[in-house]
Specification:
Elements lengths: L6 E2 L4 E2 L4 E2 L4 E2 L4 E2 L4 E2 L4 E2 L3 E3 L4 E2 L4 E4 L12 E4 L4 E2 L4 E3 L7 E4 L4 E2 L4 E2 L4 E2 L4 E2 L4 E2 L4 E2 L4 E2 L4 E2 L4 E2 L4 E2 L4 E2 L7 E4 L4 E5 L1 H6 L4 H15 L5 H11 L4 H12 L6 E2 L5
Parallel strand pairs: 1-4, 2-5, 3-6, 4-7, 5-8, 6-9, 7-10, 8-11, 9-12, 10-13, 11-14, 12-15, 13-16, 14-17, 15-18, 16-19, 17-20, 18-21, 19-22, 20-23, 21-24, 22-25, 24-26, 27-28
Antiparallel strand pairs: 26-27
């Protein structure tokens, strides 16, 4: 159902049962899937690819050009997966020539006033709390939670099932399954509450804890810790995922927290 007070470009491809509220503007070269609701005063610009059963709340701007002086007008996109909600006044910029798109997975919740810059790749089932901000070229895995006012530096990667506490400045890569907190942001344990909620067994959580004890609490450097983990711990998907993340890190992983007391 399209309100007469909304503007929809004739070149936009909108499924028949999409609801578009008044005073919304949808530009050319936009695709919106079945069952999606677009609130009032939303702006959806060229290159948006919005999935099924999404909810886009008032004031949001989807697929605006990148805030990057190197952008030369190349045809790029924003992809938003099915069942994702974007709350009030969030901004999601499309890609540049680097990745050609920004991408948000399925079943995500992007809360009010979040900003997702160009060339960000975000997995499924993520929650970004109010005012969280991603600079360009950020990669975030599945089931990641960013609390309010988190700021993520460009080119940072955050692994699956990680949790970052409110107000954190994320300058280094955050490995899978961990919690990051304090300033400078540091490892403060694994995300055991989130893992239990997602069905991880006590034995699996203990295995992940033991891996990170070797990495962060035994005074090894990263190279030494990786070698010991690989030699002494049984190969499992979680162990291998953690080791691969550390090896692939371009910015280096966040440090451990050591009390001065």
């Amino acid at each position: 159902m399209n309100q007469p007070l909304a503007y929809i470009h004739p070149g936009a491809k909108i499924a028949k049962n999409v609801v578009v509220e008044p005073f919304t503007t949808i530009h050319n070269n936009v695709t919106i899937g079945q069952g999606t609701w677009i609130g009032s005063n939303v702006t959806i610009m060229e290159g948006a690819r919005i999935g099924k059963n999404c909810n886009i709340f008032p004031g949001s701007v989807i697929s605006a050009p990148p805030q990057d002086l190197k952008y030369n007008g190349e045809e790029t996109t924003v992809e938003i997966g099915n069942n994702t909600t974007v709350r009030e006044c969030a901004t999601i910029n499309k890609g540049t020539a680097d990745r050609m798109k920004s991408k948000i997975g399925k079943n995500c919740l992007i809360m009010a006033y979040c900003h997702i810059a160009h060339d960000c790749f975000i997995g499924d089932n993520c929650i970004f709390s109010n005012n969280s901000t991603l600079a360009g070229h950020v990669t975030i895995g599945d089931n990641v939670v960013l609390a309010g006012l988190v700021a993520v530096h460009q080119f940072v990667s955050i692994g699956n099932h990680a949790f970052v506490t409110g107000g954190s400045l994320v300058r280094k890569d955050v490995p899978p399954y961990v919690k990051g907190a304090r300033e400078p942001m540091s490892y403060v344990g694994i995300n055991s509450v989130g893992l239990r909620r997602r069905g991880f067994t006590s034995d699996k959580i203990r295995e992940i804890q033991n891996i990170y004890r070797l990495l962060y609490q035994r005074n090894y450097n990263n190279t030494q810790a990786v070698q010991i983990i690989e030699a002494e711990m049984e190969a499992t998907p979680e162990r291998d995922e953690i080791l691969q993340f550390i090896r692939d890190s371009q910015r280096g992983i966040m440090k451990g927290y050591f009390s001065t007391n």
